[in-house]
Amino acid sequence: MTAADRLLVLQRALRAASPQDVVTALSRVLAEEFGVTSCTLLLADYGISALQPFGREVSPGSAVPVAGTPAGRAFMAPEQIRTAPAHGDPHETLYLPVSVRGDRLGVLRVVRPADGDAAPAEELAEAAQALAHELLAADPATDVFQQTRRLRRLTLAAEMQWDLLPGRSCERPEFSMGAQLEPAYAVRGDNFDWAVNTGTLAVSVTNGMGHGVQAASLTALAVGALRNARRSGADLAAQADLANQAVWSAHTGDAYLASVLFEVDLATGEVDAIDAGSPLVLRMRHGQVERVTLEAQFALGTLEDTRYVPERFTLEPGDRLVVVSDGVHDYRSPADEMFGTRRLAASVRDHRLLPAPEAARSLLRDLARFRGDRDADDDAVALCLDWRGRPAGPAH
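== Serine/threonine-protein phosphatase ==
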């Protein structure tokens, strides 16, 4: 059987399987057609601190740490990682990224004969990608993958917030992007959203006031209103206006959301932006970090008749854009010391060589170290966008 035939058999088996049985179908076909001894799907938890084996009882003890493990390196890079067999062991282990369009879901751990009597690594990598696409299709129809991803129970507010997200990373020829929410299992009002449309990238970071379900519900209303306006063809100003009206109509000024909205022209790198609150925007260019200063406008839902006005700046290839909520830059220690823009800029510089998704996560790790043993008293979101610009050739 040719490589193409094997992959076709796998794809058909995955599509035919019930949503909860996709991984079982994958294991069967890899054993029968690809010569694999065993395989295990490792799914990233919400905090991206561990990879949890699918099909096992979920517990912190069963999880594989992201830091310092071959599986973690495969997930974060992302790239194939091969571990040589131990002396006398006839098998080797491959760790293969499971991702779709840059959205990293986890890692496929594959054990195969070390003597080459199995499908090559390139074919197995294609099998991992086929699995990723099927996971996205199957996930809305079953709870089993969501259950595996959580090492402990999410609060109701966190469940609502994670269900709102478009993903945690995105990769296109023009850019690479990643974001993270903290505290992952108890996040309340912070949120990020993005959408790649014809010729544009839309991005928003929002921070709903309040706590618990109240904050999550407020954010869900605003994100839904922004999406509804965007999908109706409204420009950035009209999106903000309509979201403001939706929040005002529900709360008449008693609740609001600090937000920043972007629309990036994928052909030119020109960015239309609206600063409607407290999220902070930094740009790193040629190793220098500076704040992108935007005119402060009213938070969404503050006043009924607010009209929002976009401002424009331009990204150059090689730029990194970082957006954080006030839970990052305004965090104060028990000694009343603020994390602040200076530490934030230093963190951005320190992690300049990391891929965008890992840079966002590392920034929040720096905040956690600054916080020490103290529990977070506010949500935090970090979003990182690496701009490459449109490649030469036909339009994308």
